[in-house]
Amino acid sequence: MAPGAVPFLPTEEKALRESFVRDEDERPKVAHNVFSDEIPVISLAGIDEEGEGCRRKEICRRIVDACEDWGIFQVVDHGVDAGLIADMSRLAGEFFALPSEEKLRYDMSGGKKGGFIVSSHLQGEPVQDWREIVTFFSYPVRARDYARWPDRPAGWRSVVERYSESLMAVACELLGVLSEAMGLERGALSRACVDMDQKVVVNFYPKCPQPELTLGLKRHTDPGTITLLLQDQVGGLQATRDGGATWITVLPVAGAFVVNLGDHGHYLSNGRFKNADHQAVVNSSCSRLSIATFQNPSPEAVVYPLAVREGEAPVMEEPITFAEMYRRKMSRDVEMSRLKKMAKMEAKQKEAAPAKDGEVAGPAAGPAAGPAAKPKTMEEILA
Ligand SMILES: O=C(O)CCC(=O)C(=O)O
Ligand SMILES: [Fe+2]
User: Fold this and answer.
1) End-to-end C-alpha distance for the chain, whole angstroms
2) Which of 18, 45, 342, 370 has a CA positioned 20 to 30 A from the CA of residue 306?
3) What spacing in Å lies between the alpha carbon of 373 and ligand 2's midpoint?
4) Distance between CA 291 and CA 138 in Å, rounded?
5) What are the pLDDT digits (tens) for 169-199?
6) Does 214 sit in the ligand 1 pocket, CB within 6 Å?
7) Does residue 215 have its Cβ closer than 6 Å to ligand 1?
8) What is the rounded CA–CA span in Å between residue 19 and residue 126?
9) How open is the CA angle 149-265-70, to the nearest 5 degrees?
C-alpha cells in the first residue's frame, strides 16, 4: 500500500487526511450539484428505422455531433430493462454496505484481476482518490473468473450477468452508429475490437469531510472504445473541453447511460471523435454510486485509424496493439505525476532558500531530481 494510504476511507474524521489533498490546480472548480445541460440526452427509440428521413439518421447525427464536441452524450430509450437497472443499482449499493471483512475477501491489491479496492488499482498515485471500487471482467465470457466476482449480496452474479449482456448489446449498437458516421460498414468498429472485452467498475464515493480539497476520481480519459456509465441522482461526473480550465457537471438523468468516448475510439476515428476528459467530484452530504461499463478491444487488437479523411494526417505514427497503447498511456500518467511532484518539491526548496542576487537557482538536488524514469511494465503499474 502507498505511504499514507488507508485500507478504508476515514469518513468520520473532520479534516481530510493529507494523502487525499489535491494540488490547488486539480481541485474541483464546480460543485457536484451545479448541473449543466450541455451534454445532449438522446433517445434511441426508432434506431432500427431505415430509409430517407428516418429516426436512425437523426439519432446518428446527434450522436456524431456530441462525439465531435465533448466525446460525451447520454442515451435513454436504450432498451435495457428498467427493473434490471434498478436491481443492479440496489445490489451495488448493498455490496458497499457489507462489513469491511466481507469486502476484503475480494481484495485485489497485488495485481489481481478483479475484486475490491480502495481508491485505485494503480500503483504510485501521489494522491488518493476518495472512492471504493468493485470490478470484474465480464467479456469475453470464456475469460470470466467467477472466483473474483463477489458472491454476496445474494443474486449478484445472475443480475450482473444479465446487466453485462444488455450493455454489450447497447454498446455494439452505438459502435454501429459511429462506424457508419465514419463512412464504414456497421460492424467495422466492433470488428476492430476483435473479441471485445468488457469490464465493469462499480464506484462508490462515500460522503467526504472536505470535498473541496479532493476528487472521487482524478481527471482522466478512459482507455477503451466507449464507456457506458450509470449514475445515481446525486451528481458528481464532470467534464472539461479545455484541458481542465473549466468544467461542467453532467446532469443525472434517471435510467440514462452516459456514454464516454475513450482513447481507442478517439484513435480509430483519427481524432475526429473526442476522448472524454472527465473526473468525479464528491460532496459532504451523501454518498454516490456509479457503474462504469468499459467496452475495450482485446489486448492484441491493432490500434490505428480506420478512416483518415481527405486533408488529414493519421494521428498515430504506427499501428500498435491495444495492450501497448494502454501500457504507454499508463506509464505517461505515472511519469506526469512524477514530474509534477518534482516541480513541487523544487518550488518548495526555492521558497525555503531563495537564490541571492546574481546567483542562478540550480535544479533541486536529491533523489527526486534523478534521471527520467525508465518505461514501466504492467506489473509495475498495477497495485
Ligand atoms: O463516477 C463517475 O461519474 C465517473 C466514473 C469514471 O469516470 C470511471 O470509472 O472511469
Ligand atoms: Fe472514466
Assistant:
1) 8
2) 45
3) 26
4) 13
5) 999 999 999 999 999 999 999 999 999 999 9
6) no
7) no
8) 8
9) 105
Range of the domain at 211: 18-345
Q: What is the pTM of this model?
A: 0.90
Q: How many CB atoms lie within 10 A of CB 59?
A: 21
- Residue 107 is classified by DSSP as B
229, 250, 294: which to mutate for ligand 1, most atoms within 8 A of CB? 229
Determine which residue's CA is closest to atom 1 belonging to ligand 1.
290
Where would I find the H helices in the chain?
55-69, 82-96, 100-104, 156-181, 188-192, 263-268, 322-352, 378-381
Which residue owns the Cα nearest ligand 1 atom 8?
Answer: 292
Q: Is 39 in the pocket of ligand 1 (CB under 6 A)?
A: no
Q: How far, in Å, is the centroid of ligand 2 from the Cα of 227?
A: 8
Residue 225 Cα to ligand 2 middle (Å) = 12
* CATH code where residue 182 lies: 2.60.120.330
Number of the ligand 1 atom closest to the C-alpha atom of 250: 3
What ipTM did this prediction achieve?
Answer: 0.99
Placement of cell 462506424 in the chain: 179
Q: Establish whether residue 203 lines the binding site of ligand 1, counting it when its CB lies within 6 angstroms of any ligand atom.
A: yes
249 by Cβ neighbours in 10 Å (0-12 / 13-18 / 19+) ranks as: buried
Question: Tens-digit pLDDT profile for the chain (383 aa)?
Answer: 444 445 689 888 899 999 999 999 999 999 999 999 999 999 999 999 888 888 999 999 999 999 999 999 999 999 999 999 999 999 999 999 999 899 999 998 888 889 999 987 776 778 999 999 999 999 999 989 998 998 889 999 999 999 999 999 999 999 999 999 999 999 999 999 999 999 999 999 999 999 999 999 999 999 999 999 999 999 999 999 999 999 999 999 999 999 999 999 999 999 999 999 999 999 999 999 999 999 999 999 999 999 999 999 999 999 999 999 999 998 888 888 888 888 888 888 888 876 665 554 444 333 333 445 566 665 555 54
Pairing mode, strands 237-240 and 248-250:
antiparallel
Whole-angstrom distance, CA of residue 236 vs CA of residue 4: 25
365, part of any domain: no
Residue 201 CB less than 6 A away from ligand 1: yes
